[in-house]
Each structure stands twice: as structure tokens, then as C-alpha cells.
Amino acid sequence: xxxLKIISTASYHPPYVVTNQQLSIMMDTSDEWIRTRTGIRxxxxxxxxxxxDLALHVGKQLLSQANIQASAIDLIIVATMSPDAYTxxxxxxxxxxxxxxKAVAFDISAACTGFIYALNTAEMMLKSSNWQTAMVIGAxxxxxxxxxxxxxxxxxxxxxxxxxxxxxxxxxxPLILARDLRTYGKMADKIVAxxxxxxxxxxxxxxxxxxxxxxxxxxxxxxxHEVPTSIMSAVNKAHLQLxxxxxxxxxxANQRIIEQIAKRLDQPLNKFPVNINEYGNTAAASEPILFSxxxxxxxxxxxxxxxxxxxxxxxxxxxxxxxY
Length: 324
Ligand code: ACO
Known about the structure:
This protein has helices at 20-26, 31-38, 51-66, 90-98, 114-127, 151-154, 216-237, 255-265, 276-279, 286-296, and strands at residues 2-12, 17-19, 42-44, 75-79, 104-108, 133-141, 159-170, 176-183, 191-192, 213-214, 247-250, 305-312, 316-323. It is of the alpha/beta class. It has two domains: 2-170, Thiolase/Chalcone synthase (Peroxisomal Thiolase, Chain A, domain 1); 176-323, Peroxisomal Thiolase, Chain A, domain 1. The strands form four sheets. Strands 1-7-6-4-5 form a five-stranded mixed β-sheet, sandwiched between helices. A four-stranded mixed β-sheet has the order 8-13-12-11, sandwiched between helices. The protein starts with a strand and ends with a strand. The mean pLDDT is 95. Bound molecules: acetyl coenzyme *A. The site of acetyl coenzyme *A has 23 residues, from helix 2, helix 6 and helix 7. Residues 29, 33-34, 37-38, 111-112, 151-152, 155, 191, 216-217, 219-220, 223, 253-254, 257, 281, 283, 312-313 line the site of acetyl coenzyme *A.
């Protein structure tokens, strides 16, 4: 029976490291505050590569690891809240740079839940078509959206990209066992970046976009309540018990949020791998980066059951239960 399989995973970060110490010279903050409130020690910041450039590094690795040509890809989805431009989509730019000429390509905008939404969309599109292969990438250059004078957001985010290649194979078990996707548009104003201004464009063109703004405490409360609910809902839909989940790969926004969620689910913290200390919050890139790292480290094996769960702008939340 034909089912989907993840045939490669990859990630990339720009080379330039910015430590908490460096930020504490630029603004009124400290390594101690950032570490104890968030778990972040450093982040990678792009100096000259845009979002599609980071995605391209990942796309090339995905193809070479799976030993397939760009011409074999049917679908490319990039999840991002920091695209190169309003148009063309980052996925279209990536498609062109890869030379994946037959692939249909588009972006998904769901902030830090973007990769979960994108993976679901790719799975559904492959299952309902004769397409064979999809590339799903989360890529962000959040540093270009930040107000570097606002310590309440500037210290939290970083740049990077990660992704997976999905292909139809003869498999008895489906890749995605269950999903739970949620959007809370009434809380849309809790995380905002890149708002446009209407009415000031004629006759004089004003093209400035608003920088990143977040109601940190409210998002914290949202995440610690809604993410466990979403995970439980997906686990129930998969007809599993929580202790059958081998690893929980959560969006890397804050170490304390991850610890709270582990506690609420009554699951041991060693089932929750983290890289927030090294990367900071990379929004849609956070989960595929972590996924590819734990696979590269040999932590996750074929047959393991993984809960991938994200939350963020929208507000939004989502969980996928997958059998790797
Ligand atoms: N350095 C030093 N002090 C700071 C800093 C900083 N970088 N930032 C804020 N402070 C100060 C505040 O001004 C405040 O001071 P006051 O008490 O004198 O008013 C104090 O620290 C406490 O501020 P809080 O905002 O209440 O701090 P909190 O403990 O809530 O931590 C944080 C803030 C880390 C942002 C936390 O609320 C959080 O993680 N929220 C969730 C964010 C998140 O998960 N986002 C994910 C989605 S992002 C997306 O979708 C793209």
C-alpha cells in the first residue's frame, strides 16, 4: 500500500553567532535575564542571506541526502513569516534556484506553527494526487523584522531553516497518525510583525512595515494551556496513550514553556529535546531544525512515534503525531 515516508531531513543556520553578552552591550539586558527567562544563550543572525537563500541550503542537502534530482519534486511548500518579498513566494524563488521546474510551489504563513500546517498540507496534497515527492521547508530571517532597540523581543529570535523531503513508498503504516490544527484569530494582535499602512500610499509612497511586537505574558499563558490541549487531542485521535509517544518535538520559543508543557502532560523532560539555547526562536524553522538534528544525532529511529507541536502568531497551534 502506498503511504508517505520522510526520506531526508536537513537544516542550516547562517554562520554569524550573536551571544547574549553582545546584546547586553547593545541594549539594557543581560545574559542572566535572557538565560533564566528563556534558556537562550546565543542565536544565529544572517548578515547577507535572505530567507530563500537559507531555504536553498536546506533544499540542496535534502536532495543530495535522498540522492534524487530537483526535477523529481512535484510540490514545494515553504513555511515562513519572513519571506523575501510579498511576491514572488519564497517557495517560487527556491523552486527556480533549485531548478525544480515541474514543482508547484507556494508559501504558508502561520508563524511558528507554519511547519506543522505545511507538513499537513503537503501530506494531504500528495495523498489526493498522483504526485510522488514534496519538499517542505521552514525558513526564517527574523532578524530583518526585529526592532533592535526593543529588548522585549530582540533577544528572543534567530535565523535558520530546516526541512524534510516526503515521498510515496510501499509502507503499511501512514506517516501521519493524527493531527490537530487550531487558529485563534481573536488573539491576532498578540503577535504582529510587518503590518502595512493603508491610506498613506497615495499620492506619496510610504513603504515602511511595522517591526515585531508581542504580548509576551499572554502568549506564554496561551502556549502553556493550548499546546498540551492540542497534543492531547492529537494523541486521542491517534488512539494512543501519551506514554506511547517516544519524543515530543515542540516549537523552541522558551525553555520554561517546554518544561511547563512536559509537567502538564506528566511526561519526563528527557522526551523533549531542545536547541533553544543555541538557536533562540526561529519560528517556522524551529521544528524542522530540531527534527533534523535529533535524527542526525541518532536519537530518533525508524518506528518511533513523535509528537511535533507548534504555536505562535495567529494565534495558532498545531500538533502532528507521526510514525517515523
Ligand atoms: N532584558 C531585561 N529585562 C527585560 C527584557 C530583557 N531582554 N525584556 C523584558 N524585560 C523586563 C520587562 O521590562 C519587565 O520589567 P518590569 O517588571 O520592570 O516591568 C520584566 O523584565 C518582566 O517582563 P515580562 O515580559 O513579564 O517577562 P516574562 O517573564 O513574561 O518573560 C518572555 C518574557 C520571555 C517574552 C515570556 O513572556 C515568553 O516567553 N513569552 C512567550 C513568547 C513566545 O512563546 N512566543 C512564541 C511565538 S513567537 C511567533 O509566533 C513568531
